[in-house]
Specification:
Layout: E1 3-7, E2 10-12, E3 18-25, E4 33-39, E5 46-51, E6 58-60, E7 68-73, E8 78-83, E9 92-99, E10 103-105, E11 109-113
Parallel strand pairs: 2-11
Antiparallel strand pairs: 1-3, 3-8, 4-5, 4-9, 5-6, 7-8, 9-10, 9-11
């Protein structure tokens, strides 16, 4: 069964950190470009970061540069998003997406940044 499962979300204070996981089953993450997206209430879904399929090149949206790090663990078949220096405006549901021969989305994980 092909599946993407996000985890690692939660409530964190401003300035704190979280690490999100996107675990894949039924396909190999190295064969797909994997991206993280987020959607805040009342806003459109936006791209956060992605990692390339073969070359592993990474991309970050401007507001995430220097704070977020995307990585891939082939042994775990998982892509991670390390989020540091979190701000209240980072509050959103975070989704991962795999694009290759087909496209898959996870169900999302809630991140809330609040004091």
């Amino acid at each position: 069964q092909v599946q993407l499962v996000e985890s690692g979300g939660g409530l964190v204070q401003p300035g704190g950190s979280l690490r999100l996981s996107c675990a894949a089953s039924g396909f190999t993450v190295g064969d797909y470009a994997i991206g993280w997206f987020r959607q805040a209430p009342g806003k459109k879904r936006e791209g956060v970061s992605c990692i390339g399929r073969s070359d592993g090149d990474t991309y970050y949206a401007d507001s995430m540069k220097g704070r977020f790090i995307i990585s891939r663990d082939a042994a775990e078949n998982t892509v991670y998003l390390q989020m540091n220096k979190l701000k209240p405006e980072d509050t959103a549901v975070y989704y991962c997406r795999a694009v290759g021969l087909r496209e898959y989305w996870g169900q999302g994980t809630q991140v809330t940044v609040s004091s």
